[in-house]
Amino acid sequence: MGERLTEGRPVTVGVDGRPGGVQALHWAAAEARARDAALRVVHAYQLPIAPAAYPPGDYDVYALDEAAQEVVAGAMAEAAPETGGLPVVEVTAEGNAVQVLLAESGSAALVVVGTRGRGWLARGVLGSCSAGVAARAHCTVVVVRGPGGPPDAPVVVGVDGTDLSDTVLAFAFEHAARHGVGLRAVLCSTSDAEADVDEPARAVAEALAGWREKYPDVRTDRTVVRGRPVDGLVEESAQARLLVVGARGRHALAGTLLGSVSQGVLREASVPVAVVHPAP
């Protein structure tokens, strides 16, 4: 399902001259190679807030674009081992970074962004660009919170039995199959009552059965975690290759763009996090 919708589309990554952007580029290049897809490396820059107030000689649009091209070239140089041999399109665009990447997301297989900090400094920190893109993109967004576990580490996917769970599982199984790793489905419950867990757990088991048939080579297991969903998912994914969550879950308020669980794991996880949006 997801593969057909994104086939032929590039993996798009935003870079900004910071270490988090370079880390995102490393991840995006590896994913583009695994998908046999093109890689789009995008940097957005903005003109002075009130350009009309400045005489033309006070700022140079061409110099700004040249500086933007240098940001992309610098990131590409740091990620040269991963990007070598890939079809790469380097893009510099004038405008707000969130708006530029949202526009890019309309024709991308997925969009990859970094975070402000690295290692323990990144915990609890999520830049406004990463948050804005993850919330409103037209495709799945991967926020690279850290390098992830070893190459054979599993994909961890958060499920809750809602309609979106099937779309989330589709992305998770496709990623696991593409990289030859296992998958662990995690259902988090804040209730101690077995009855409150039984129904969604059954729904998850049924959903997994169908995906196991489609991807028989993907080693699959599931677990129910008691407690706060964000804490459970962060703990279960500590050594994962990738944590996959839906943009909105069972407890998201109607009309919100990004559910509380998605927001929480984007701030607390130590591995790359994929935020999957409902199919259009």
From TrEMBL:
Query: What InterPro entries does this protein's entry cite?
Result: Rossmann-like_a/b/a_fold (IPR014729), Universal_stress_UspA (IPR006015), UspA (IPR006016)
Q: Which GO terms describe its molecular function?
A: ATP binding
The record's keywords, sorted A to Z, are: ATP-binding, Nucleotide-binding
Is-annotated flag, keyword Cell wall biogenesis/degradation?
A: no
Organism domain of life: Bacteria
Note the SUPFAM superfamilies from the entry: Adenine nucleotide alpha hydrolases-like
Where is each UspA domain found? 9-145, 155-277
The record's comment on protein family reads: Belongs to the universal stress protein A family.
- Protein's name in the database: Nucleotide-binding universal stress UspA family protein
Q: Which organism is it from?
A: Actinopolymorpha rutila
Give the classification, highest ranks. Bacteria, Bacillati, Actinomycetota, Actinomycetes, Propionibacteriales
